[in-house]
Design a protein that fits this description.
alpha/beta, Rossmann fold
Length: 176
């Protein structure tokens, strides 16, 4: 099984500026719901630091096409749109309905893309995936949820599946 992890050291020279993100903002919280419903691109997914992590994630993928991909925490579907170009089927989920509404508009008519409201790691879709992309979702996980997220994502991979991650400011010692 091939997997790789993008590692960042807090405060190190490769740390990206992240504003308004922290362990206190949990999925389903009133603060997060209010923030996400305030506008189409509250995190700047189309304009700022997310572009960098999405580019890194996509650049790290091998050139071949993937049969099935899963992207939990898809938000407004910016990375999902790019994944759809490389995958036959993409399941993209988010815990909040507001960004999913925007993602549905963005991805309308895209063959093979399915959007669903789902809170991971507590709920996980059935099946196996060639690609599971964890892009910036770790901010919303406590230590236990993050460990469970990595474990369930790894176990849902096909034998030659990939698990690229981009979670700034988090350092893992081992991922198995």
């Amino acid at each position: 099984m091939r997997r790789f992890v993008h590692r960042r050291r807090p405060g190190g020279p490769n740390r990206l500026p992240v504003t308004g993100v922290g362990g206190e903002i949990q999925p389903g919280s009133r603060l997060l719901r209010r923030f996400l419903s305030a506008g189409a691109d509250q995190w700047g997914f189309q304009t700022r630091w997310c572009d960098i992590t999405q580019d890194i994630t996509l650049a790290g993928l091998p050139p071949e096409r993937f049969a099935s991909a899963f992207e939990p925490g898809c938000a407004i579907g910016v990375l999902t749109s790019e994944l759809a170009e490389r995958c036959d089927r993409v399941l993209a989920t988010d815990v909040s309905p507001a960004p999913l509404t925007i993602a549905r508009r963005r991805l309308a008519g895209r063959a093979g893309v399915r959007l669903q409201r789902l809170r991971v790691p507590q709920a996980w879709p059935p099946g196996r995936f060639d690609l599971v992309v964890l892009s910036e979702i770790g901010y919303y996980c406590g230590t236990v949820d993050l460990t469970q997220l990595i474990a369930v994502a790894s176990s849902s991979l096909t034998d030659d599946g990939l698990l690229p991650t981009a979670i700034g400011g988090i350092r893992w010692r081992t991922v198995r």
